[in-house]
Automatic annotation (TrEMBL):
Any Pfam family: Peptidase_M17
UniProt keyword Hydrolase present: yes
Cellular component, GO, one term: cytoplasm
One GO-annotated biological process of the protein: proteolysis
Keywords assigned: Aminopeptidase, Hydrolase, Manganese, Protease
PANTHER family reported in the protein's UniProt record: LEUCINE AMINOPEPTIDASE-RELATED, PEPTIDASE B
Any GO molecular function: metalloaminopeptidase activity
Keyword Cell division: no
Domain Cytosol aminopeptidase: 308-315
Protein's recorded name: Leucyl aminopeptidase
Membership in a protein family: Belongs to the peptidase M17 family.
Length: 461
């Protein structure tokens, strides 16, 4: 089912959104029989309540739902999606005093609540459809929902069907959809064209490592997105325990998120020049796997001591970022499911980000709050630079001690962005551990909507 609004011309049922405070006065406008019906069904306007008002022939004349208007701790993102899932089949329009950002959030939540991952198992579609409320940019919300759906599909697909080859195919479909150009460097050609760390990380897999590149747009500022595409991460020779390996199909969540964001940007035809780079690999175990204590030479020429083969994401990103930095652009952004330290610090819901420009950081923080895509700034803390400098190489991919793991990973990546002053890095989780409104358990985009909202300020669009 496409994540789109119903036709504006379709007959629709009014859905009244109330709360416990506004319900009593609103109910006074109803006929006595309708008030009695609501009372008999115990409707008080409490959050999550839903009641249908019957009309002629037993067809619903209207629907009434309770929403939270209280303390911030009691409110849930995309709360309307929970109501939408309970509604019987039909087309609805909202009757509410919600406006602006709050109305857009709930309308988007309805669309995202329609998402189903049904590649391997049939899933009943959501029965209710919504007409776009007045005052929202319906086309923009539909483009955002489509991009988020792409991200979720890519993350949810297991590595048996989403290895480097399949990720390349999905990338090709995206480029074809928007008439973008595409280039791929595979296998030993990575060595020939100087992407040594991408090759080293992925060479033990049965599917060759590769670097995917897309270009789109011929006008406006230049934006380069770099996404970590580790399609499965065993940990390499530093093999992960089973409990830690269980979710590693999502280790390409950075790639999935930048592809979803790219979809949004191109669908909205934003006036910018977009480049997307994805190092697509599988970190596998074989006789030619890279080893702890190996020293690798990166595309940039910096040497890297391998102190843990499970810290491979920063290695493949480093070569891609070095390539991105060889062009003069207005902003470089990397997104990656990079560190467990980020989850310990902020949990699964909030995406930490790093910014070299304080104005970009402020714009992102404000945008995340505006569009209900929570992000939190973390520091490029220069005094920690010594932690990523081992004795025998320029850089250490896994500093000992365990302190500041997300920050040291970000500092590592920043070493490969030397010529462009504006760099943003997101250390995302890419997974919804338990169902929430509009976000079923499984793959989820993080940071993309916040960045999309912030782009006009980041790029001076």
């Amino acid at each position: 089912m496409p994540l789109t609004f119903a036709s504006a011309d379709a007959p629709s049922i009014p859905l009244h959104l109330l709360d416990a405070d506004t319900f009593p006065s609103w109910s006074e406008t109803l006929a006595e029989g309708q008030r009695a019906w609501l009372g008999a069904n115990g409707f008080t306007g409490a959050a999550g309540q839903l009641c249908l008002l019957p009309g002629a022939g037993g067809i619903a004349q209207a629907a009434v739902a309770g929403m939270t208007r209280g303390k911030a701790r009691d409110r849930k993102r995309f709360e309307l999606a929970t109501i939408a899932a309970k509604l019987p089949e039909g087309t609805y329009h909202l009757e509410t005093d919600l406006a602006g950002d709050a109305l857009e959030e709930q309308a988007l939540g309805w669309l995202l609540g329609s998402y189903r991952f049904d590649r391997y198992k049939k899933a009943a579609p959501m029965k209710a459809r919504l007409k776009a409320p007045e005052g929202v940019d319906a086309a923009r919300l539909e483009a955002i929902a489509a991009g988020e759906s792409l991200t979720r599909d890519l993350i949810n697909t297991p590595a048996s069907d989403m290895g480097p080859e399949a990720l390349e195919s999905a990338f090709k479909e995206l480029t074809a959809q928007f008439d973008a150009s595409m280039n791929v460097v595979r296998g030993d050609a990575l060595l020939e064209q100087n992407y040594p760390m991408i090759h080293t990380v992925g060479r033990a897999s049965t599917q060759a490592p590769r670097l995917l590149e897309m270009r789109w747009g011929a006008r406006g500022p230049k934006l380069t997105l770099v996404g970590k595409g580790v399609c499965f991460d065993t940990g390499g020779l530093n093999l992960k325990p089973g409990a830690s390996m269980g979710l590693m199909k999502k280790d390409m969540g950075g790639a999935a998120t930048v592809m979803g964001l790219a979809h949004m940007i191109m669908a909205l035809d934003l006036p910018l020049q977009l480049r997307v780079l994805i190092p697509a690999v599988e970190n596998a175990v074989a006789g030619n796997a890279f080893r702890p204590q190996d020293v690798l030479t990166s595309r940039k020429g910096l040497t890297v001591e391998i102190n843990n083969t499970d810290a491979e994401g920063r290695l493949v990103l480093a070569d891609a970022l070095a390539l991105a930095d060889e062009e003069s652009v207005d902003c470089i952004v990397s997104m990656a499911t990079l560190t467990g330290a980020a989850r310990v610090a902020l949990g699964p819901d909030i995406a930490p980000f790093y910014a070299t420009d304080p104005n970009d950081a402020a714009a992102l923080s404000a945008a995340g709050a505006k569009v209900a895509d929570p992000v939190w700034q973390m520091p490029f803390h220069d005094p920690y630079e010594g932690m990523i400098e081992p004795a025998i190489a320029d850089l250490d991919n896994a500093p000992a001690g365990g302190f500041a793991g997300s920050i040291t990973a970000a500092l590592f990546l920043k070493r490969f962005v030397e010529h462009n002053p504006k760099y943003l890095h997101f250390d995302i989780y890419g997974w919804q551990p338990s169902p929430s409104p509009a976000r079923p358990k499984g793959g989820v985009g993080q940071g993309a909507r916040a960045l999309l909202e912030a782009l006009p300020k980041v790029l001076n669009l």
